[in-house]
From TrEMBL:
Upper taxonomic lineage: Bacteria, Bacillati, Chloroflexota, Dehalococcoidia, Dehalococcoidales
Name of protein: Uncharacterized protein
């Protein structure tokens, strides 16, 4: 059971630091970095040429290297993405997208209609486990005047509404390593790439959720560890 308090927050001044440090930090929004990924049909056990390497330069990326580990010519990055419209299916999240970054009661982590369809035994199990994250693989970057707005279509049972937002998100399943010789330390780095900096509170939320994403224990391991 997770014990962090549920704190209602939707204040950009809380999420971002107004005066940025002269250093690269965990959670920073940065520009100008090229990201690559390889595509293969399946792993091979001999020389194979059936692969594809994709090269992209997203408008913005986010640093996922811990502050104290930035250097040695490497950096962990993930692209800053537009928000998935599926998040708006849950009214609790749609009211404040940054709630995804924090733990919540289990009945708030799914849309009301889905919660009603869950059987009593499963509801009891989830309630016993306590507060949880919704979309454990995602983290929302709050709106900011320096981030471009874009339109998103929210669908409901009887209508479709287009709204303009400038919230963004990152996906922990989409992390890249980049080699850059000019990154020697947090301060000895290309600081001109730095665009936005999280506040200490924002970094703490990102750190907690990223740790939760990687520390989940599958059911079979939980059983084995109890025996």
């Amino acid at each position: 059971m997770m014990s962090e308090a549920i704190i209602p927050k939707s204040d950009t001044s809380y999420f971002y630091q107004e005066e940025m440090d002269n250093a690269l930090r965990f959670g920073d929004v940065v520009k100008g970095f090229t990201l690559t990924n390889a595509e293969i049909l399946k792993p091979w056990d001999s020389i194979c040429t059936d692969y594809q390497v994709n090269v992209k330069m997203p408008p913005f990326s986010v640093i996922l290297t811990p502050c104290c580990s930035i250097g040695a010519g490497t950096l962990l990055l993930t692209p800053l993405l537009r928000v998935d419209v599926a998040l708006f299916a849950n009214p609790f999240l749609a009211e404040d997208l940054t709630r995804i970054n924090r733990i919540m009661p289990p009945d708030k982590a799914v849309p009301p209609d889905k919660w009603e369809k869950i059987d009593a035994g499963e509801k009891a199990r989830r309630e016993l486990e306590g507060t949880t994250f919704a979309f454990v693989e995602l983290f929302i970057y709050d709106k900011h005047a320096s981030l471009p707005s874009y339109d998103i279509n929210k669908r409901s049972k009887n209508s479709e509404d287009s709204i303009s937002i400038n919230h963004y998100m990152i996906d922990f399943r989409n992390i890249f390593k980049i080699n850059c010789k000019s990154i020697n330390s947090p301060t000895a780095a290309p600081l001109e790439s730095k665009y936005l900096q999280l506040s200490p509170e924002g970094r703490s939320e990102l750190r907690i959720k990223l740790a939760r994403f990687f520390s989940r224990i599958p059911a079979e391991d939980a059983v084995a560890l109890r025996t």
